[in-house]
Amino acid sequence: MSGGEFAPAGPGRIPGASGGDDLDDDVLESLAEDLHRELSALGAHAAALYLLNRAESVLELVVMVGLPHEFIGPWERVGLAAPIPVADAVRGSETVWVCSEEVMMRSYPRIALAVPYEFALAAFPIPRPASADGAPGVHGAMFVLWPGVQPDHMPGALREGLGHLAFEVGRAMERAATAGQLRAPGHGGEVLIRNPPSPAPGTPSATELMAARLPEGVCALDIHGRVTSVTPTAARLLGTPVDGLVGRRLWEALPWLHDPLYDRYRAAVISGRPTSDTGVRPPDQWLAFDLYPDASGISVRITPAEVPAAGTPRAEVTADLPQLTRTGALYHVLHLATALTEAVTVDDVVALVAEEIVPAYGAQAVAMLTVHRGRLRLVGHRGYPPEVIARYRYSPRFSFTAGARALAAGQPGFYESREQLDRAFPHRSGQHDGMASWVFLPMIASGRSIGTCVLGYIRPHHFSTTERAVLTSLGGLIAQALERAMLYDKKVAVAHGLQAGLLPHALPSVPGLAAAARYLPGTEGMDIGGDFYDLIRLGPDSVAAVIGDVQGHNVTAAALMGQIRTAVHAYATADADPGRILAATNRLLSDLDPGLFASCACLRLDLRHHRAALARAGHPRPLMCTPGGGVRPLDAPGGLLLGIERGGDFPQADTPMPAGTTIALYTDGLIETPGIDMDEALSGLADELSHDVGLPLEDLADVIIARAHAARHRTDDIALLLLRSMGPDAA
Predict the structure, then answer these.
(1) Which residue from 472, 485, 483, 406 is spatially nearest to 445, judged by alpha carbons?
(2) HSE (side-chain half, CA atoms, 13 Å) at 488
(3) Predicted confidence (pLDDT) per residue in 319-348, tens digit
(4) In whole angstroms, what is the distance from residue 437 CA to residue 12 CA?
C-alpha cells in the first residue's frame, strides 16, 4: 500500500533508548502494510504495534494503523506496570479481550474516561524465540480495535486469526534481526502512521458532482480530520468558501465547530461507528452534523437543525482559544488525572508518576521534593543512581535552586539543555545529575506550596507549547494527589502509633516457654483496629495468653480494646481459670455497655505438668502443632461474644501440651480473605505450621505473617501470638 505518512512520535519521544529493539524504516513500512491488510480480514478498523524497551521496562509505540497520532498520546510509551491492556498482555503472556465500553469501564476505568466510546479491543504479546535459559520472551505487544460491542468471549476464529497475526509479526521481526535491520539501541525514531492517502484537491469527480446536487451539505474528511472535498451547499451552510476549507481541519478553519465536532470526530474514528451532534454557527444558525466513518476517512452530512428550546445556551465562539488545550491534550490530562485519583499513599503517587507520567513524556527520571522546615526534602524518586539521590537528599545545593525558584515563583522551569540550566544557575555549573534536560514543576495545592516535581531526560529535549501546557496542568494534579497522600500517611502513622501503644511493648520472658507475636494493620482505611494480644506471667511455671478482636475500626474500638486487655490482665492475675476470666470480663463489658462486642480466646499454660486450658468467646480456635508436625485445632465449647449477655457462660477444655508443642493464637483477619473459603484458609495455615514448625519461633511468625503482608487489600487487622513449650531443661 502506498501513500502513508510519517508523523512525529510526540513529546519527548526517544524510541529504543537504553535498550530494546528498534526497527529499520523498511521493516516498519512492511509491517504497516501487512497490518493494514490484516485489519480488513479481521473485521477491525485500527491497530498499533509496540516494542519492548527492556532496559526501561517500557512499551514504545512504533506502528499505528487506522488512528490519528494525537489519539494515542497518553499511551505512546507505556510502563510495564501500568494498568493498560498491552502492558497486561505482556505481563500475563496472554490475550486481553475488552468486548465493550462497559467492560472497559470496569477493567480499565482510566482508559474508559479518556476514550468514552463504544468499541472492542484485543491486546496480545508478540512472541520471540526462547532465550538461552529456555525462558520464552516477547518482542512487544499489539492492540486491535473493532467497532461496537463484541461477544463476551472472543470467537475461536478471531482468536486463531490474532494468534496467526502475532506469529507473523514476530517472525517478521526475527527476519529483520537476522538481516541486521534492528537498529542499535538509542536510535531516535518516529512512529509510522499508516493510513490511506488524502486525495489532492483537483477537478471534481463524478461522485463529488453527484454529492453537490444533494439538498444537504456533504464533505469528506481524511482519518486526521482534514477536509478532502466539500460541496457548495456544505460551504454555504458553514459560511466559508470551499477553498477556505479544503486541506484544513474543520474545527481549525471554523473554531466555533470545535465543541460540537471534534469529540464526535474522535468518537467516530476510535469506535468505527456513526456519530452525530448539533452546533450553532454564529450568530444563531443551528446545524446538525452526521459522521459516517470507515477505514479511509469520514463522510459528514450537514443539515439545518431546529432551534433548541428557549434557554438552551448557544455555543460560544472559540476563535481566541489555543487549540493545544482543546484537542488530544485534554484527553491526555483526563487519563492521567484519573490515574492520580487512585493513588492513596505518597509511595502510590511516586510510583504512578514514575510508571505512567514519566514514560508518557519520554523522561527517564523523576524526583519528588516536598517542603520541610524551610527546605526541599526528597520523598520519592525513580531513575536516578544512588550518588545523585544522596545529593538530592542531603545537599542544599544540588538542583534545589531551580526547584526552589519554580516553587517560589509558582511557575514551572523548562530547561532543554545543560547549557540553559547552567546559564540560569551559574553557581550550579558542574553539579550534574547525568540528565540533559529538565522540568521543574511547582506543586501547589489548596493555595499553598507543597514541593517540586523534577523530571529528567537523558538527551536534550525540546518542550513544545502543548507539552509545556499539559505538564504545567499535571503539576497541579500531582500536587493535589500528593497533598491527599501526605495527609493520609500522617493519619495512618498516628493511628498505627496509637494502636502500637495499646499493645504490649514486649512479651515477658518465661522459663520453658518461647513466645513470638506479630500485629499487622489492615490496608483499607486509616482507622484504629481493635485486635489485641497479651502474655501474662502468673507464677514461676505458668502463664496466661489472651487474644481478641473488638468490633469496629475506630477510636471507640481501640479504647474498648485497651479496657478489655487491662481487665483480662487483672482477672488473670487474681484467678487464672480461663473460663472465669472471660466471664468476669464479659460482666464488665456488659456494665460498660459500649455498644460494641468482642471475641476473645484465653489460654492457661501449666509448663510444669505440660497442660493447657482454653476458653473461647466467639473467637477462632487456636491451632496446636506437635514436634512431629501434626496439627489440630484446640477444641473448647465456644461461648457468646463478650458484651452480648451479662450472665454468659464460657466453659473451658484441658489438653496435654508435650514439650516442643507449638500453639498459634490468631485473629480472624489471618484466615478471612474475600473470595477464599475460611476452612480452606484455615487448612492452609495448618499446612504452613506443619511444614515450618522446625523453625525458631520468631522465624515461624515471620513466615506466617508474610503471606498476609503480601496481600494488596486486607479489610481487617491481624494479630498473631505463637507459644512453644521448651521442656524442663530450657531456661
Answers:
(1) 483
(2) 17
(3) 333 333 344 455 566 666 777 777 788 888
(4) 10
